[in-house]
From TrEMBL:
Name the UniProt record assigns to this protein: Fibrinogen C-terminal domain-containing protein
Secretion signal span: 1-25
Species of provenance: Littorina saxatilis
Residue ranges constituting the Fibrinogen C-terminal domain according to the UniProt record: 152-343
Swiss-Prot/TrEMBL keywords: Signal
Amino acid sequence: MKSTKSARLLTVLVVFCITVRFLTTQEIINNTTPAQDNTTTTFTGIYRKHLIQARYCGNQVLQEDQRYRTVWVRSKIECVAVCRLDEDCVSIVYDKGQAQCHLADSRAFANCTNMEPAEPAASFYQEPPPCGYGETLGPLGLCICARGFNGTPCVRYFHDCADHYYHGNWLGDDEYSIQPLDSPEPFGVFCRFIANVRLHVMVRKKNKNQEDFNRPWNDYRDGFGRYDRDFWIGLEKLHLITSADRSYKLRVTIRLINDTSIVHEYNDFKVSDEASGYRLFFNTSVLNGPDDCLLPLLDAKFSTYDHDKDEAANLNCASVRKGGWWYRGSGCGSCSPHGILYKRSDGKLQGEQDEVFWSFLGNAAPYKLNMYLVPGDAVEE
Ligand SMILES: *[C@@H]1O[C@H](CO)[C@@H](O)[C@H](O)[C@H]1NC(C)=O
Ligand SMILES: *[C@@H]1O[C@H](CO)[C@@H](O)[C@H](O)[C@H]1NC(C)=O
Ligand SMILES: *[C@@H]1O[C@H](CO)[C@@H](O)[C@H](O)[C@H]1NC(C)=O
Ligand SMILES: *[C@@H]1O[C@H](CO)[C@@H](O)[C@H](O)[C@H]1NC(C)=O
Ligand SMILES: *[C@@H]1O[C@H](CO)[C@@H](O)[C@H](O)[C@H]1NC(C)=O
């Protein structure tokens, strides 16, 4: 019995891995071109040794005592060529008036303390430091993080789906790797773009009850299912995304059998950490009727059949409703998105404890029920 279940789970996982293209952070980083800084003149493509004009010290050149060799040249190009052939040469002072090329093996400091005023006809060029991936040459001749990168070393951070979209890494609805501010490592989420709002798909329940939602705590914590069928993102990811520096709305979209769509949004949606029971929080809701089912669940702890935190004596709501959720009190609350979709032909509720329902719909049963995290500043449809 147990082995059949793990075998089935394994199959699901294998299929999951094959079907869903997972972009690792490394791949994303390698696929993204860092911004180029064009504040400097480069000789790229002509000389292997790039000498760029260093203007950040004003009209100054490298101090005389740092130059180790002087040659007569007819042009700046020739001076560059001499430096290129000299292994030790890192910078040049080209003196057009004297037709002299001074070679040096050091560079201008960012604070310019090793520079001296130059003759009007002299100019200074140096090899830029080798900048690594995600870096660009800064105005002071130092490598700095390119736009969209930060940290030491420079790393591209995608905090959420919106970052992928706005930093030119959008390849359509798919799984993307994100790393919210306090997350120890990146993880995958499914990002959807719908009518000008950037979304994370959180939970998706549709068609034929393809995924078993009657699962233990660890599954609800870590997430389960397949993006193209039914799935649950996982409470830990929800916590990490919603507890970072940006605000999100929980958007619940419900499709009825007659194709009517109902959208409910909960502003400033947050889920606390595991130690405090993944408590539910939101500020205000939009489109809520007087019987909004999430309102009485504010600050409730999440429950699963093996982790009963519903505050109801002698009752295990997650077990009765056949799915993990925020439940409270002997009535368990009036939203139950993770049970069974009975899909009656008349579109009505079956009247069972374990079916999917959402209170404000009255007698109508959800035909599909999806949830997304939407950036707090997303425009309303
Ligand atoms: C990304 O680039 C780094 C550095 O060039 C390389 O070591 C790494 O293997 C690349 N990763 C992928 C997934 O291509
Ligand atoms: C960089 O190049 C762009 C396009 O040629 C130009 O519009 C811009 O002024 C340049 N920036 C600087 C700082 O030179
Ligand atoms: C200027 O920069 C150089 C090289 O980074 C450093 O050794 C020196 O102490 C700096 N001088 C001042 C006055 O900051
Ligand atoms: C669809 O069903 C709901 C619930 O029964 C009802 O309120 C709504 O008016 C219906 N919409 C249409 C277009 O028939
Ligand atoms: C909801 O947000 C508003 C505006 O930011 C704030 O004034 C109010 O205190 C918040 N309510 C709760 C319950 O946090």
